[in-house]
Design a protein that fits this description.
single chain; mainly alpha; Cytochrome Bc1 Complex, Chain D, domain 2; two-stranded antiparallel sheet; binds heme C
Length: 301
Amino acid sequence: MSRPSTSFTEPRHLPPLPRIVPGLVRVRKRRGVRRAIAWIAVAVALVESAGLLYPRARALALSLEETPAARGQRLATSLGCFSCHGPAGVGGTHNPGSEEGEVPAFGEQTQMMYVKGADDLREYILDGAPQRKREDPDYQAKVQAAALRMPAYRAFVSATQVEDLVAYLRATSGQVLPDAALAARGAAIAGELSCFSCHGPLGAGGVANPGSFKGYIPGFWDRDFDELVRDDGELREWIGKGALPRISNHPIGRIFFHRQAIKMPKYEDVRPQDDLDALVAYVRWIRAGSWRTLASADAHH
Ligand code: HEC
Ligand code: HEC
């Protein structure tokens, strides 16, 4: 998410204003037109430099939203978790000698087979496995036979970092699901459409998006969402049309809307209305946050 520092020095390389302006004073004819052009050039230069300075202003003036799960996901990258658990934790890395033949995934409900709750996750991270497993001779033999072993990270992570990793692992588990039928169908559709590869695990946000207003793709958990989604009508419009006129027609909003590298897909052409309704119900359920207790403390499955 850090931007190259060159963007802050670039305004110095812009042509100094006098080089633009004298060009017009030499020509007397059509001075009005020339002057207009000069003003446009000045305006463009100002907008450009404002744009380049913007990341700094943005960092100072705006609160960048950071969820524990998004932090945990970045931490998992820096700790090398994905080298064994596969890109984005999808698993599939060969593990010769192991029972499963592969390192387990983090998502798609795989955790269900390994952990009983958040405490087990903590113990996997800190000690390589929960104590009850480490004390079991069968488990010990199993682990010893495998080429790849889950490392103990106790010496490398702080207590807060463990909680961030747990938040990430729970959010990406595929086990935090709504009870209501419509929202539950929305969860399945969100999986098919890979909403979370852009919006972060369970919509925790934090995926980088160069050129966008805040520099990352907004999530569904908190303030970013409330700024962008005022009601169900707007939520539906985002999902159906990939845009909201309130933002895309706004004098400043539209600069970022067009400039951002990654854009919200438009799903109304590829999915029936029913599916969009289900997605609305699901995203609403995520925003409401009643799953948070399920995702932290000790969720038993
Ligand atoms: C050297 C390879 C390796 C690395 C690196 C690694 N793991 Fe593991 N991990 C494993 C193996 C192998 C298992 C299966 C252990 C078992 O059978 O109990 C496992 C199991 C797990 C489990 C329980 C099963 C599941 O998929 O939910 C969790 C949770 C887990 N690891 C989290 C992490 C986290 C978080 C990191 C990074 C901080 C990490 N692992 C890094 C190899 C690795
Ligand atoms: C290719 C990446 C990508 C995918 C896939 C994606 N989105 Fe988005 N989404 C974005 C971007 C980028 C924005 C911000 C758009 C803007 O500001 O113009 C966004 C905005 C949104 C918003 C506005 C509010 C907010 O806080 O995010 C909602 C709601 C949303 N997306 C829902 C979904 C749902 C539901 C899915 C899956 C059906 C989905 N998105 C799939 C990239 C994506």
